[in-house]
Amino acid sequence: MRALSCLDRAVDPERLVRTAHAAGLDAVVLNDDLVELEDVVALVRASGLRVVLNLPLLFDVDLLTRLPDSLAVTSAGRPAVAEWLRMACPRDDEFWQARLDKIRPAVESVRPDLALLDFARTFVLWEQVGPDAEPRAIEHGCWCARCRAAGDDATTVPADAVTARVIQASALVRRSAPGTPVGVKLVPWLATDYGGAREWACGQDLRALAPWVDVVVPMSFSSLIGRPTTYLATLHREIRETTGRALMPWLQAADPASPTALGVEQVSEMLDAVERDADLGYGVFHLDGVADRPDILALLASRAPQHRSPKETS
C-alpha cells in the first residue's frame, strides 16, 4: 500500500483522486471527520483506491473548543494549545467518550483497509524540537491535577494513560470492522533522544503499544526534524526490533512549516530510506504539498510497482 495523506475536511475529492493516480499511489488517507462527506469516500472507492481511515485520539479542535476543560496542561502550566495543535488530557473521560462517539460510526461506515491511530500521545510540538534541544526545554504535558495525582512528573512517564487509550481505540475498531488492521503513528525519536523523551514527553511506550496494533507508522520526517536521512535507518531498525510489528513509514514530501518546497533530490533521498525499510508500503505527506509538484509526482510514479523492472521487484 502506498497512500496519499489528506486530512483536510474541505478537500476536493476529484483533485485527491487525480493526484493519487498521477503519483502512482494505490490508497488515500482520510480523516474520520471526512466521512460526513460521503461523496469523498464513494469517489475514492469507485476510482479503485483503497482507504486508510485516520483516527486522531487526543486531538480534536472542534471537541476541545466545546470542552475547554478537557485540554491538557503543559509543563509550562498553560493549556496545551500551540499554533495548529491542541491536545486533550489523556485521562479526561468526557473528551474521550466524545471521541469514541465520533470514531465508532466512522469506522462502521467506511470499513477501511487500514485504521490508523493518530495523536496517540501527549502534547508536544515534536516537529519544532531540533536535534540539539535540551530535554528540559521541551514543553509537554499533561500536568493537570488529575495527571499529577496519578504520579506523572519529570521522573515518571505518562505512557500508561496513552497506552490505555490505544487499547480502547484498537478494541473499538476491531469490534466495529472485524478484520481491519490497526496501525499507530509514532513520533520519530529514538529511545535515547532527549533523555528518553519519547516516553516521558510523548507518552509512547513502544513495547506497551505493540501488542494492540498490527502496524507501526513512524513519522519519518528527517528533514523536518533536522536530522540526516541516515537517521531513518536507525529509527526504523529500533522500532522494528522493539515492537516486532510491520513497518509503514510516512514519507515527508512537503514541509508544512516552510514556504519553500522541498527539493526533489531531498525527497528522493528520504524515499529511498523509507522504501528500504517499509514492510507494508508507506504513506506520503501530503496532498497539498505534492498536487502541484510535477517533479514529485513523477518521482513517486516512477517507484510504483508497475514501473519496476523484474529485477527490482524480485
UniProtKB/TrEMBL annotation:
Q: Which domain of life is it from?
A: Bacteria
Q: How is this protein named in the record?
A: DUF4015 domain-containing protein
Organism expressing this protein natively: Cellulomonas algicola
